[in-house]
Specification:
This protein is mainly alpha-helical and 293 residues long. Helix content is 56%, strand content 5%. The chain is rod-shaped and about 120 Å long. Bound molecules: heme C.
């Protein structure tokens, strides 16, 4: 007569399967504090216990019908701890006598085929795999679980939120704190293209707005070139509403103006001016004598 799996083991297996099942659908361990989870665990536990009790009754009945030797063998086997028995069963080797019983009646080249039972660990893995597969496909089909697109969107949102929190925690860049950095030129160029090039041209040569690459400036509220550009971009021109207050209006942030001003500084100080012959606007204002940054 076969030995049965202890109830405790069955209950443990049920808890593990339920945990996997809940996790697939809830996608966090929050369910561990939910009464529904523990309710299902308790109900499943009680059912497993009842099943075990019925099994005991059946086993007792069968036991009575065994011969004395069978009874002794059964009791000896029962003394072996469960996990040891499981281990033995998983890696059992047939004796030669047993092999005769399971020999299939064909062979080739002296190799005979045996009708072996599948190892228990293999069968267990197979059942687990099948159950997991069904659960996984169900979770994949009816929930957001394991969907690359949903996961991507979720992570994207989280990153955007994290960036927002980060930039809020950063002190805003003002004309006092802004500094020229050559690292900002490339990004500044892109920002200049989107916000300023319509009037000042991509190369800063000017059109509706003045040429930003030459020495002549209409507005010179600040002593250094970098700060002057920051000032103009933040406050706009007091004389010409076409040059609006991009910073004050909230169209570009202080951090962005810091980059734009670095680009304007770069094209004014480090590149040759865009002359009229090259399509630049004629000089306007007076010659500026900028202090060093
Ligand atoms: C709608 C057209 C327009 C846009 C867009 C524009 N500007 Fe201007 N900008 C002007 C005009 C016009 C002036 C001349 C103002 C004046 O006469 O006082 C000017 C002047 C300036 C000056 C001072 C130049 C001087 O000689 O005094 C700077 C610096 C400047 N703009 C930077 C920028 C930056 C940086 C941006 C992008 C964020 C920008 N502008 C976007 C039209 C524009």
């Amino acid at each position: 007569m076969k030995q049965r799996t202890p109830v405790v083991i069955n209950i443990l297996i049920i808890i593990v399967l339920l945990t996997i099942f809940y996790y697939l659908f809830v996608q966090s361990y929050a369910f561990l504090s939910s009464p529904y989870f523990w309710g299902t665990v308790i109900i499943a536990g009680i059912l497993a216990y009842i099943q075990g009790a019925i099994g005991d009754l059946v086993e007792n009945n069968k036991f009575k019908k065994l011969s004395p030797e069978e009874k002794a063998a059964y009791l000896a086997e029962k003394k072996v701890p469960y996990f040891k028995r499981l281990y033995n069963a998983a890696f059992k080797k047939q004796s030669a006598a047993e092999e005769k019983d399971i020999l299939i009646d064909h062979g080739f080249d002296g190799i005979m085929e045996l009708d072996n039972q599948l190892p228990k660990w293999w069968v267990g893995l197979f059942y687990f795999g099948t159950a997991f597969c069904i659960l996984y496909v169900a979770a994949y089909s009816f929930t957001d679980f394991a969907h690359p697109i949903n996961e991507y969107e979720q992570e994207y949102k989280e990153q955007i939120a994290a960036i927002e929190i980060y930039s809020k925690s950063q002190p805003p860049v003002t004309i006092e704190t802004a500094k020229y950095s050559a690292d900002n030129i490339a990004e500044g160029k892109e920002l200049f293209k989107t916000n300023c090039a319509s009037c000042h041209k991509e190369d800063g040569g000017g059109g509706i707005g003045p040429n930003l690459t030459d020495k002549y400036w209409i507005n010179q509220p600040e002593k250094t070139l970098f700060k002057n550009v920051f000032h103009m971009d933040w406050n706009g021109s007091p004389n010409n509403p076409a040059m609006r207050a991009f910073g004050k209006n909230g169209e570009v942030s202080g951090a962005e103006i810091e980059k734009i001003a670095a680009y304007v500084y770069h094209i004014n100080q480090e590149l040759p001016p865009v002359t009229e012959a090259q399509g630049g606007a004629a000089p306007q204002g007076t010659e500026a004598h900028w202090e060093k940054e």
